[in-house]
Design goal:
about 400 residues; mainly alpha; three-stranded antiparallel sheet; binds acetyl coenzyme *A; Citrate_synthase_typ-I; Citrate_synthase; transferase
Length: about 400
Amino acid sequence: VIDISKLYAQGDVFTFDPGFTSTAACDSTITFIDGEEGVLLHRGYPIDQLASKSHFLEVCFLLLYGHLPTASEVEDFEFRVTRHTMVHEQMTKFYSGFRRDAHPMAIMVGVVGAMSAFYHDSTDISDPWQREVASIRMIAKMPTIAAMAYKYTIGQPFVYPRNDLDYASNFLHMCFSVPAENYEVNPILSRAMDRIFTLHADHEQNASTSTVRLAGSSGANPFACIAAGIACLWGPAHGGANQACLEMLKEIGTVDRIPEYIARAKDKDDPFRLMGFGHRVYKNFDPRAKVMKQSADEVLDLLGIEDNPILQVAKELERQALEDPYFTDKKLFPNVDFYSGIILEAMGFPTAMFTPIFALARTVGWISQWKEMLGDPKQKIGRPRQLYIGETLRDYVDVENR
Ligand code: ACO
């Protein structure tokens, strides 16, 4: 007879912690969150200051290298990223293997995973130079890859990057310009896009980042690790929430239907949840949601989209939920994705593109965490334990006797 309890005596400590709600798998110097106080700091700097004063590539530099860049450092970094915005021409053919009605996240998982087949000169993780090149390549190419996924699904020709544009403007250009027309990037939209990227850049050990670290802990190449992160992000409880949230707000449609949906969210027998509400760590407010709400107001105002019915529904839903003890007792507040979809839709993006945009913004966080992990001598291959609750030892039964 096997004494199963003995198995769990191996090692000094054995904890059973489904969902890792209280287990740290690493130490990190990148991002600090105080969920009770609604604080989010990147390398010590508050997210609201970064979102209002910085721009995305500066935040990328901060996450990757640990300090805000000087003017010459940021210029050099922008140059290095810009040089890598094109994708291998052979990759453009890779897209045509997908169905046109594929979800762009499905395409992203495949194309990013396939990057290791196109850029195998930067897959040797033991070489710091190759790690650096792979990092810059991914930050630079992700907007191109996401925009190409979008163009492919709507049947339009790919638009190549324009390296005279800044990161956010270039992404908008690749998504919305068509060869027959003269597309001018609206600076208001470009600034809003950049802010959305900044607000999603990193968020310490969330599900997708932990996935990237776990994949990387086995020594997998960086492109494979980021593809794993994209796959994890896709779920509606994580990055897929922005798409699910806007679809929910549209389904609600008018403010008079809000009580019906709040009642559904509270009903234990109904699997429905208020999308864009709740967070594993934030139990007071999500500081990113505050900036995002303000940004939604600004963007719609500046675009002259007044009285947007979906924004009205969102604001009223937030108001009613925050007056309801069900939500306040469980500490459920709007998260970053509650308002982001409204901005993205106003920019002209279909809902299916919301999560790819999150993925491209989060890429720098994934890479920073992956690099940090590789540089940490304490890091071992990630290997969670389990609590076995199945059958104990029993004899095999021949098929005629079962
Ligand atoms: N609507 C209604 N009830 C909710 C919601 C919600 N959005 N979120 C949590 N609850 C309830 C649960 O039913 C549970 O109730 P119970 O204690 O009576 O069983 C309680 O609050 C705790 O919920 P958990 O799922 O245990 O909390 P957890 O920390 O595991 O989940 C999560 C956090 C996944 C974000 C959850 O709040 C959720 O599903 N929200 C909706 C999806 C969403 O917006 N995800 C985006 C997260 S942010 C991001 O990834 C960028």
